[in-house]
Design goal:
This protein is an all-alpha fold. Helices cover 68% and strands 0% of the residues. It is built from 8 helices and no strands. The two termini are 29 Å apart.
């Protein structure tokens, strides 16, 4: 049985939640809509294998108007024509942020982002990825369960606090 570190150290978790609130505001101010933020949250959570964050952010993406089709192919976003240049740039930055050891991919993602995103949008996309990576680690290390009663995608089941 693991310790739920968010419950064990609530002050630290609260600070992470406050960071998430600030990052969400920064993203909105930069012109990244909620769908882009949720795509980043989901892609990072896919890479990290965080079931709780995948569950939470799938529901948030549906509430933001995301389609089942795009959610279904998100893991293979590069192989589709379903994502806008802004979304593609944000997703590439999210992947590079999640695996910063791949310097070539990181430079490629950053160069591509410079073609379609403003400096504020680049910063916001990276901050969204940094924040959801932190929440992924909290849930993974705590082994937070995904419970059947949390509701299906699109159903209200609580406030989304993780990610950006």
């Amino acid at each position: 049985m693991r310790i739920f570190i968010d419950k064990q150290s609530p002050k630290a978790f609260h600070a992470l939640v406050q960071t998430s609130v600030a990052v969400r505001a920064v993203a909105a101010e930069a012109g990244l809509d909620r769908t882009v933020v949720e795509l980043v949250n989901l892609r990072v959570s896919q890479i990290n294998g965080c079931a709780v964050c995948l569950d939470t952010h799938t529901k948030a993406a549906v509430r933001a108007g995301e389609s089942a089709r795009r959610l279904g192919v998100l893991a293979a976003w590069r192989d589709t024509e379903l994502f806008t240049p802004t979304e593609r740039a944000a997703l590439a930055l999210a992947e590079a942020t999640t695996d910063p050891t791949d310097a070539v991919a990181q430079e490629s993602a950053y160069d591509a982002a410079r073609q379609v995103l403003t400096d504020d949008q680049i910063s916001a996309a990276i901050w969204v990825a940094v924040t959801i990576n932190a929440f992924n680690r909290v849930s993974i290390m705590s082994r937070h369960p995904v419970r059947a009663n949390r509701g299906a995608p699109g159903e209200e089941s609580g406030v989304t606090v993780s990610g950006g």
